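User: Could you walk me through two proteins back to back? I'd like the raw sequence and the structure tokens for each, with a short line separating them so I can tell where one ends and the next begins.

Assistant: Of course. Protein one, sequence then structure:
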Amino acid sequence: MSTRRIAFGLAPVLIHVQRALASEEAHGHEAGGIPWGSLLFSAINLAIFIWVLARFVMPAVRQWVHQRRDQIVNDLADAAAAKAAAERLRAEWEARLADLERTTAELRAQAQQDAERERERILAAARAAADAIRKDAERAAAYEIRRTQQQLRAELVRQAVSLAEDATRAQWTAADQQRFIADFLKQVGQ
């Protein structure tokens, strides 16, 4: 039913109630009687108020309540999704943290192995260098010994020749010299 029809249907009732109230006021109230006109007018006003509430206010209230309910449901769903995403993210970061600890331990072990290999390589290079230095020192010492031996031999030969010359000069006579020269010339002539 349209709002206009209801308003036009209630208008004569309201006019009649108003007349009854006016007549009652003009004649005065009977003592101890029920003011039927006033009661009827209040009942009609209450009915109109309830009808206005039901027709105009309640749909808006219902719509607001439905929208609010939908918003709360959506907010709760969003919060649940956000909570699930946060839980997944927390689990992912915990896994990463555990993986980080494992990776750190692996890196430490790898660094330890690399350091050990580098230590062995350095020690091997140092041993090789020490061997090369020792061999060079042995060669230098052997060369120095040979050179010293040659110098000693040469010195011994020089001293022996010098001593032999001295001994020979001391023991040679003029006749020995003549004979030596003759033997030498004979050998050259042959």
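----
Protein two, same layout:
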Amino acid sequence: MADQNSFSVESVTAFLSELYRAVGMPAEDADYTAQCMVQTNLWGVDSHGVLRTPIYVTRVKNGALSAKPEIKTVAGGEDKALEVIDGDSGIGYVVAREGMKRAIAKAKKFGTGTVLAKNSNHFGAAALFARMAAEEGLIGLAATNVMPNIGMKGNKKPSTGNNPVAMAAPLYDEFPFCLDISMSNVAGGKLLLAAKKGDKIPTDWAVTAEGLETDDPEAGFKGFLLPTGMHKGFGMSLFIDIIAGVASGGAFSRYLKSMYKNAEEPSLTCHVFYALDPSCVMPGEDFSTRMKEWAEMVKATPMVDESQTQIIPGEIEYATEQRRLKEGIPLPAELVEDLKKLAAEAGVEFSLKAV
């Protein structure tokens, strides 16, 4: 495994923000993007955090990502429970924040709210946006389509994207319920991370470009991923693409672009944001009580090892965040070198502080 060091959360956040400002992003958007990426690492989802900085910065510099997107409504509106927005090829974090903010506002007004976003880009971990709803006492869902990168056994080429989806609900505890999954056995970023670390991958993660079994993360990344649960993940992926891409009037399936293979072109990515307000069904206090009771029932599940308790989605991420807030964020040495080069090119001080 390649060497890696841990860096303070504050220094990584500040450095990323300065880097994004240096390539033209407004301060607020640069700050938000940096916070999202660092938060993702804090949860332990290293494949979707700081690791993506080099490609994001490259795409902003070459114009594939709009540094100052003009996000606008193209269907529906404030007076509708459904709205479609055009992200003007902005970085996915900024487009997604706007999409979920509007979905939340609609849910508080109509009981449910749905916002479809087209002409966007990679938005990192879907959990970031589903959790926005949970933080408001709502139930939230966020999903996105991506270019075809998974396929069924027997395919010579990938036939759909791994199309991640996250679902969140408030537990009125230290962390919300939050399940964030892609429709592949693993996210493509995990192959990138394995390659950075010099690790091998399990043979059920991906196949080569020729459809052959492999434990080489680079060969797997150049090939395509295998779906989780085979037909189950495959079918879910197709459905997400229908909602996000087909129904929004945006790009879908092979019309989508890879941010790596098409680094100088907009990805045309589409997203779905949904929020539900339980207070339309019952008083907020009743919902809170019922959620706590539900969580207690799950946690009370008898375990073979009596020293263990059933884990609720979101719990592992919370524990990881508490640890990394103290111990710092681990970054592979190769990634750190990439960040140093980006800093030099942008005229920004490399200010990461090791813990």
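The longest helix spans residues 92-110.

Let me know if you want the two compared in more detail.
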